[in-house]
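haha ok so turns out i had the wrong file open the whole time. this is the CORRECT one, sorry everyone. sequence first:
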Amino acid sequence: MAKKQDNAERIGFHKGSLATLTKEREEFMRILQIVEQLMQMHIKELKDLGVDLVAEAKKSTTKKLKGKKPIEDVLN
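then structure:
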């Protein structure tokens, strides 16, 4: 009986976690869409002002992003 209760608690915990993470992912996607819209607005304005963004991108040096470790490495 205790084993069955323990499994039910674990299942409930994981289901609750997934529900929370799903909501977090939806909010994150909403924020990303807003950021993308703002970036597109700035790109359009820069193009209208005559800035060659392709040339600018080629001139700048690309820096590596931090935090590219796989989640498995972070958890261990």
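The radius of gyration is 22 Å.
again sry for the mixup
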